[in-house]
Each structure stands twice: as C-alpha cells, then as structure tokens.
Specification:
mainly beta; Hypothetical upf0131 protein ytfp; two-stranded antiparallel sheet; 5 strands; 13% helix
C-alpha cells in the first residue's frame, strides 16, 4: 500500500492580494485530493475557510452544487486559492460559467473577498438532497480540521 500524504488544513489568512490575481473559494471536486484539483495545483493555497449564507449545498451525484434561497441557511466549507486570469478562465470553462454554474462574489467567514460558483436556478434543484454538513467528500484530515474540538 502506498504512503498517503497527510494534508495540512489551517484557517485561511486574509493576506494582501497579489496584484493580477483573484481569490476563489472551492467546495467540491476542485478541493485538494479531489478529481479536478489539478486545475489549481500551481496556484497559491490560502487555506480552509467557510461561507455562511442563505442557501444550501446539494448533492448532484458526482459533484456538489450550492444554491441560494431564503428558506435555508448553511455554512459551506471549502478552500480558498489565489489564481491568475488563465486559471480563472479554466475554472469558468469547467464550471460552465455562466450557464450551468454562475461565478459570484462572496465574503468568507474570515473576511476574504472571493469568487464562488453557485447554481443559478435554485428552484430546479429543490428536490436534490442536501449535502450533509455542507462539506463534500471530506478527507480524514479535512474532517478532523472541521470537527475536532477547539483547543
């Protein structure tokens, strides 16, 4: 059995933004250890963070989505990256922006202004099951970070 590298999770730090780059919050297949993370492999990992919002995370099978609505409130858990325009364009292509997912500005719970992809037509996803705890497919290290008792 191959050695599994332990991922380190730490809270995102709202550092000064590098000129020519933007911040993106990811919560699904773009996270470390997930199938589409290769698109972010050369970009700066800022840290783990969350966005508390009116809406919820839905389970779409192979990947999650976030919908905005006034009925629900969720804390979406994910990661923040600092990316350049080429990476942002690649993410837009992957996410089908602006028709499948829409990229909108959000502020994380630690105060970082960033882009996040959400599903634009919330009513179309009303019957989709909610993603438990708004943490999609967590690694053991990620689960430990989010759910370990505070020190």
């Amino acid at each position: 059995m191959a050695d599994v590298k332990k991922l380190t999770y730490e809270r995102a730090d709202p550092l000064a933004l590098t000129p020519g780059r933007v911040r993106v919050f990811v919560y699904g297949t773009l996270k470390r250890g997930q199938s589409n993370h290769g698109l972010l492999i050369n970009d700066k990992y800022i840290g783990a963070d969350s966005i508390t919002m009116k809406g919820r995370m839905v389970d779409l099978g192979a990947f999650p989505g976030v919908i905005r609505n006034q009925r629900d409130e969720a804390t979406i858990r994910g990661e923040v990256y600092e990316v350049d325009d080429d990476t942002l364009n690649g993410l837009d292509y992957l996410e089908g922006h602006p028709t499948f997912y829409r990229r909108d500005k959000y502020k994380t719970d630690t105060g970082i202004r960033c882009w996040m992809y959400t599903l634009p037509d919330a009513e179309s996803y009303d019957r989709c099951p909610s993603q438990e705890d708004a943490l999609w497919s967590p690694t053991d290290d990620e689960r430990e970070f989010w759910y370990a008792p505070a020190q």
